[in-house]
Amino acid sequence: MSAVRELLVAGEFHEATVEQVAERAGVSRATLYQHFRSRLELIDEMCDGFDANPALLALREAVNDEDPATALAATITQAVAFWSSEDAVLSQLYGVAAIDQAAADLVERQRDDRRGEMTRLARHLRQARALREGVSERQALVTLMLLTSYESYRELRQVGLTDAAATSTFLAAARRQLLL
């Protein structure tokens, strides 16, 4: 997995052969194929490691915070922390998702997972009666998806915002648009 991560960070994984991955990992091609049948499985296994990322674990806990304002702030803060901690790998995967099925599958799974968490948060905000008047649970979900997406994070980073400034920007927008 270290070899896959290194190749991704270097922007070389998508052109690399299985033989090159095996060589970088210090194993034979046959050994690699005993554990992984395809490049897709290599990407899947490496990305399964995201589940252990402390920011992602904290994000999943934040959604459950009893106080809706705290849940919202912690969720956005941890989303930025996760995107930041995995940016070198994710920028490569998101960048080639249109032409690489393994990357496309990862991006779609991440969106589905995030949609599930943001749906729980939107529901929590509604049940706690914390949403602004006229903001539906669906509208809250749409706003949360925009404010926690990797693409939104990258856009703010590309215009020069630090992680702290991006977090502040997302939090201010979330509070203005969602909370009483």
Task: Give an overview of the whole structure.
This protein is mainly α. 73% of the residues lie in helices and 0% in strands. It is built from eleven helices and no strands. Helix 4 (39-48) runs parallel beside helix 8, helix 5 (54-62) packs antiparallel against helix 6 and helix 9 packs antiparallel against helix 11 (163-178). It is elongated. The mean pLDDT is 92.
Mean pLDDT: 92
Report the order of strands and helices.
HHHHHHHHHHH
Number of helices: 11
Number of strands: 0
Mind telling me the C-alpha Rg?
Answer: 18 Å
Low-confidence stretches: none
Brief characterization of the structure:
The chain has helices spanning 2-9, 18-25, 29-35, 39-48, 54-62, 68-85, 87-95, 101-127, 137-147, 150-158, 163-178.
Question: Key terms for this structure?
Answer:
180 residues; mainly alpha; 11 helices; 0% strand; elongated
How do the helices and strands line up, and which of them pair or pack?
Blueprint: H1 2-9, H2 18-25, H3 29-35, H4 39-48, H5 54-62, H6 68-85, H7 87-95, H8 101-127, H9 137-147, H10 150-158, H11 163-178
Helix pairs in contact: 1-2, 4-8, 5-6, 6-11, 8-9, 9-11
